[in-house]
Request: fold
Amino acid sequence: MLEQMLNQKVAGLVQLRLTLADKLKDTITHLNTLQSRVLDDELIRWKREQQLQGNGSQFNSNLDSIQEWCESLAEIIWLNRQQIKEAERLKQKVGLEPPGVADILPNLNNQITQLLSSLVTSTFIIEKQPPQVMKTNTRFTSTVRLLVGGKLNVHMTPPQVKVTIISEAQANALLKNDKMAKGEASGDILNNTGTMEYHQATRQLSVSFRNMQLKKIKRAEKKGTESVMDEKFSLLFQSQFSVGGGELVFQVWTLSLPVVVIVHGNQEPHAWATVTWDNAFAEPGRIPFAVPDKVAWLQVADALNMKFKAATGRLLTEENLRFLAEKAFRGGGQQQVGDYSTMMLSWSQFCKEPLPERNFTFWEWFYAVMKLTREHLRGPWIDGAIMGFIRKKQAEELLSTCANGVFLLRFSDSELGGVTIAWVGEQAEVFMLQPFTSKDFAIRSLADRISDLQHLVSLFPDVPKEQAFGKYYTPYTENQPTTSNGYVKPLLVTHVPGWGGPAGSLGGGSYPSTPQNMYQPQSPDPSVTRDTPSVASAVSDSVSSLTTVMEL
Reply:
């Protein structure tokens, strides 16, 4: 009877252990699903939005929420791992080997440990990306964070993080083999090691590299039409730490977004083309750093719109985007509305092939316009005072029916980063002023130049120029004090020969004490109708002369 009772208890225990193993198995299945949702959906989405931020997209980071989910997962996984290990220990202690149980527990232990490993390695992330266009010998910053560091007590022995720069081919090899040759790198980075610190208030384990500097870069061999600005690198962040009193050791690494390395400022526009194309069209889970060679115009338009809005403060209109499509596809105005939407734009058309009869590409033209607007025209652009994206012929057609003195502003087709003023003269004739560039606006702003030119009366269609640009005029005081060194400061005023004297010479304007008719030929200078640079622009302020006014 005693033996029978013992056998019944043993059978009951075996059944309970089988039930426990089944429940643990179900728990791991649920954890797997949940972890996949957090890592493969939420964290991947966060990374994608972080990449689009590089193109100017608004980034509402929910990383703190993702950390909370990851910490909860880490806690549940760790507790279940302890349960499995305890069940294994009891099995060995009792010495019972019921059929079917002996193999389940080690297998479950492997599964739960793999889940933990995946969670830890996936949550070692770059919170603040390094600059994607990186100039050698220029300081830059970056921050990495371990989302589950606090929960797993990793900070008890703070891990070291090392940063190296690797090529596209090396990044490929790393993802395939999960390892790289020791010490292999594509350049030298100063101040490239740091210790992760735990911040009690935020419960974040992170390290900020504030003073890194790329000293040297090794380039790959170029093929065909490739340039150094097409070549992509990545910063590799590596660390190692243990959890559970050294029971588990994790080697973690993560790659930054693609980086283009330049040595000179004139390489910046093309480098940004590479980065913009990659950020916009990179697909999840791609081979580093593969991007499509052709993309639908609608996607390109979205990327350009996002970029322009971030730089200048205002989105492009449908008309603006149609103009850009026409320019990118070298359409010359023949295409009808909407024809471009399904067309595919190639990387070569985007930033390799020069525009017709020009020595610059579509991207170089767009980038120069965006830079000019950001640095010198932001206010009027946001107000809608700059039409900008309109062809010379269209501008002439619009103005041909307007009154004398009506003007509009358009970006030059022929000069990089140039904006020209088109206006109506006598007998409805339309004139174009030679384009102003950043160099001109560094001397005198657009609004002040428009104020100087008395023959400009109303912004198209009929907005008085004071209403459109008045708030951007530089305040003027008649009695200018002498500077600290005793000199009287001169004032530079824009004047178009043949179109009236400088402001004030007609009895009004912003600068009433400007001398009368210092330089006034009898007829308009024929070069004002051109929209091309001239030799004169190298020695004078565009085609307009600058009248120096001494305020005495």
Q: What stands out?
A: The radius of gyration is 33 Å. The chain has three domains: 2-122, 125-291, 401-406+418-552. The CA atoms of residues 207 and 442 lie 40 Å apart.
